[in-house]
Amino acid sequence: xxxxxxxxxxxxxxxxxxxxxxxxxxxxxxxxxxxxxxxxxxxxxxxxxxxxxxxxxxxxxxxxxxxxxxxxxxxxxxxxxxxxxxxxxxxxxxxxxxxxxxxxxxxxxxxxxxxxxxxxxxxxxxxxxxxxxxxxxxxx
Length: 140
Ligand code: CMP
Hints:
Blueprint: E1 3-10, H1 12-16, H2 20-29, E2 33-40, H3 44-50, H4 60-67, E3 72-80, H5 82-90, H6 103-107, E4 116-118, H7 122-132
Antiparallel strand pairs: 1-3, 1-4, 2-3
This protein binds adenosine-3',5'-cyclic-monophosphate.
């Protein structure tokens, strides 16, 4: 299996409810290592840049508003097949469709306030990690 890195965000709906530790426990129980982590309050501009791929979608304005409304925790996770592994631990984007035991099934409020983000492919993981971390902040 390939050792891989993925980018994660613990979103405002989760940090507001003091769920950072509970979510990190699920990440670690799934065999992923948190090799970088920091709490930041995204500006609107940073949220717009991060989610630029969605800028034509009807939910873009609300997404930017929600992501910049309160602090988030940005992370780099490392492990075998980390991208897919983390997406499995997160569960479906819409918590109503998420499997039992996943982060979104247990903690998400709705499609927009869905507690976590994880990269969807190696190329996006590299771009997202570089947006938030310099190389010497990632300690594997
Ligand atoms: P995330 O994985 O962070 O990527 C884009 C985010 O947009 C997604 O999680 C959801 O929080 C949010 N979102 C809101 N509405 C939708 C929708 N209809 N389809 C996909 N994502 C949505």
